[in-house]
Sequence to fold (241 residues):
Amino acid sequence: MSTRDVLLRAAGRKLIDVDGEGELVSLQPPASPARVAEIEGELGFALPRELTELLSLSAGLDMEVQESLDLASIEPCPWEGPLGQVMNLVGDGAGNYWVVELHPGMEILGPVWFVCHDAPVLVYQSPDLAAFVDDYLRFCAAPHDGPVASVVREAVQRVWTQRDLPSSDLLDSQDPVLRDFARRLGDGWFIRDLRHAKPGDGMPIGRFGPKTPLARAGQEFVFAYGSRTRMERFKTWLTGR
Fold:
């Protein structure tokens, strides 16, 4: 099912929130041509055709209690995550967000990522926007389960405690992306390959404190984080740098 169909099907749907109260889902008005032009000016490139078509239908979904879904909120990745400009779809109410990275020429609006600050992780949520909207609405309705619930309740802590490959283990990898990336990074870095991620896979972006160095292999979903000494982390705690 397309994202357009998911949005249209959602309009008028009644959800039961965690307090047992009902709330109605409604379509937001379309984004104006001026707003679309403004977004493209901020990005420096044309929006994907699918997103332009969606914005001509609606700028998102309004809900009475839950966070509303916004298709016209474009900004840098929250929490200094390792993604570029993103469509900030919706928050979880605790300062964490589901986002889609935007780049020139993309044909599919996805994947969708969960960027969390507590614990500080980046988690793969959905392969595309249509799947995410469907899963998010499922999460917002009783019994509040499904892939979104699994990421929020289980994957965040699992990703936070996982151990990733040191870059030194990949210096002679048969995969040229991993090999070249590892050789560029040097010692003290850990690599996570999320090119074939499944919902719940991810990377701890704050493993060594709030200023953990992050890197990415070009536009590939291959990420790395660098180690910091206890003294460096203590300095950050004192000075914020």
Notes: The domain at 3-160 is CATH 3.40.1580.10 (SMI1/KNR4-like). The longest helix spans residues 147-161. The chain has a mean pLDDT of 92. The helical segments are 3-10, 33-43, 49-57, 129-140, 147-161, 176-185, 230-239.
